Amino acid sequence: MNPFLNPVFAARIAKRYLTDINRAWRASPRQLRRYQDRALRHTLRYAHRVPLYREKFREAGLRPGDITGIDDLHRIPLTTKADLIDAFPHRQVPPGYDREQAYVVGTSGSSGRPLNMFKDIEYITIEALAAVRQLKAYDMNWRKTRITNIGDFSVPGTTDEESLKKGLMGNLSPFFSFRNYQNLYTGEEARSLLAKMNSFRPELVIGYTSVLMGLAALKRRGQGPRVSPRVIISSGEVLDDYSRTYISDAFDAPVRNLYATTEGGSIAFECLDREFHVNSDFVHVEVLDKQEQPLPPGEFGTLVITRLYRGGTPIIRYTGLHDLAALTQRQAICGMHTPLLHNLEGRRKDAIVLPGGKIYPPATFPMPLAEAAARFHTLQIYRFQFVQRDIDDILVRVQLAPDSDERLAERLLAQIESNYRELAGREVSIQVEAVEGVETPEGAVSPPLVISHLDPRRIEEHLL
User: Fold this and answer.
1) How far apart are CA 227 and CA 404, in angstroms?
2) How far is CA 239 from the centre of its chain?
3) What architecture is domain 351-460?
């Protein structure tokens, strides 16, 4: 039976729809914190019935009532990705949970073993409300705005395929038309994607940074003349400043960052003012150092999340995203009162580590390349990639546009090399190489920004 035909379920979702979306604007920071405290208590009562978390509470000598709010959250032990993997399927959900009615979604395992977890339709619908909030921030409407979402559709077990396409859209399609949505597969050739988008004429485009870069390169050559979105959202990969500028210039549209994960849903997004808002009433965010202690605003560390709604597999103080981030105490001017990320720096495993322990997160390391491009007022760089061959040996691959000016390209590459030598120091070998294409490792859908051949333990020495 379609759960939206159940009047009790439908009423519960309708209430959340009317209250959750606008809370970011209507609630003050103090009211948001009080809501977080209540939501956390409800979540922990549910989590305490889950064997994985019941064991963690017992080992720590805790009962759900001992945690009265966010200020007590640090007392709960951290949950690792391995914890969730080992707990699947029986120890991830409460006894009696109807796993047959839930959707099993998973991560690809690019950071190690793949993770599977349960999401039920209420869980999925609440996740979607955060996306509706983001649309509202862009003055868009989920029922009217033409949206092209280039994601992991057609791939079994992914959030896009199972949660969004089958779960949410599948159950809501008897009640609402989704003709304003175009779901495309991220692995499709860029030329084909742009041709389909040209027919659809989206107002909003969502995709991986690398896919958007490929589309932008074609757009700059005159293809896709009717693809003129009002806003572009980059998600799933690092959005560095050069890529943001390149994509924005090609489509003449602002590019904004979305931080969404399988485990946490929509965690944070950039508003039109480029403030990075945490959906703190859906997900609480901590940033910890390698001693598992909170870091002050402005200092990057490992991002830890706690999901603040019940259902499916609970996510409590979860470290398995392996992302680097920093918080800020700055207040936004856009009207939303949610807390802000200072920056999202990318995957921990993709950090560049130099002699002496200097660390450059993947979102930061492209800055010397962007500075070189800005110096020559050029957007001839199509793609780039960093290969850390050793602690003191880095290869910078640069893919230039086919019609690049040869003399300018030579000066540009020399400037890039000079900038990185200045950044890394004399003890680090820097090689800048013009390539026809960057590397896509086996099993990857798109080329990564960083390929590191370092022993991961050398990176972990400096990070949580």
Assistant:
1) 24
2) 10
3) 2-Layer Sandwich (3.30)
